[in-house]
Amino acid sequence: MKTIKLSSFTIETIEEACSDFQYKEDELINVLHRCQQKLGYLPAEVQEIIAQKLNMSVAKVYGVVSFYSFFSMTPHGKHPISICMGTACYVRGAEKLVDEFKRQLRIDVGETTKDGDFSLSCLRCVGACGLAPIVMVGDKVYGRVSVKQVKDIISEYQKGIN
Ligand code: FES
After folding, report:
1. In terms of CB atoms within 10 Å, which end of the chain has fewer, N or C?
2. What is the CATH number of domain 79-158?
3. Is 103 exposed, middle or buried, given 0-12, 13-18 or 19+ CB atoms closer than 10 A?
4. Distance from residue 97's CA to the centre of ligand 1 (Å)
5. Boundaries of CATH 3.40.30.10 in the chain?
């Protein structure tokens, strides 16, 4: 049998989340949300325990985690970069921004740079459509971002300005 090495805090967090939602399979999304909130991300080992506790297959848990962009299987970087892919942002070129961030950071969406400094993810509409396309770095919002600005945004954080 596979040995899962998780801290007792992680195991307690999962247990508490499953128990709060009465170990119901229907509550999977809420359980995952709670665990991600407390643990920061949802690695395979965490998904396995959740599957055991909710008495469902790991494949089903994995399916949900990978379907929703707000769930992450990798730890976020020190500066998590999120690009809005809602309709207004998409129409105004968000996809090109994603490509440029991927190119500059040499990571894919959902990944973190090797030095742990940056991670890349996509979001649904963040409610600032008038400023589309939107990029967020942590809590800071950048509006009307152009492909040319991508490099500047990254270097702001590389220089430790923020
Ligand atoms: S679509 Fe990006 S903020 Fe609304």
Report:
1. N
2. 3.40.30.10
3. exposed
4. 14
5. 79-158
Evaluate if residue 17 carries a pLDDT over 70. yes
Q: Where in the chain do CATH 1.10.10 domains reside?
A: 8-67
Atom of ligand 1 nearest to the CA of 132: 2
Residues 6+ apart with CB under 8 A from 22: none
> Quick check: 137 and 79 in contact, CB under 8 A?
yes
Separation between Cα atoms, residue 20 and residue 51, nearest integer Å = 15
pTM assigned to the model: 0.68
pLDDT digits 0-9 by tens, 117-155: 999 988 888 899 999 999 999 889 999 999 999 999 999
Tens digits of residue pLDDT in 150-159: 999 999 998 6
Q: Which of 40, 138, 159 is nearest to 81 (CA)?
A: 138
The contacts of residue 159 (CB under 8 Å, 6+ apart) are none
Ligand 1: residue of 122, 126, 135, 142 to mutate (most ligand atoms within 8 A of CB) is 126
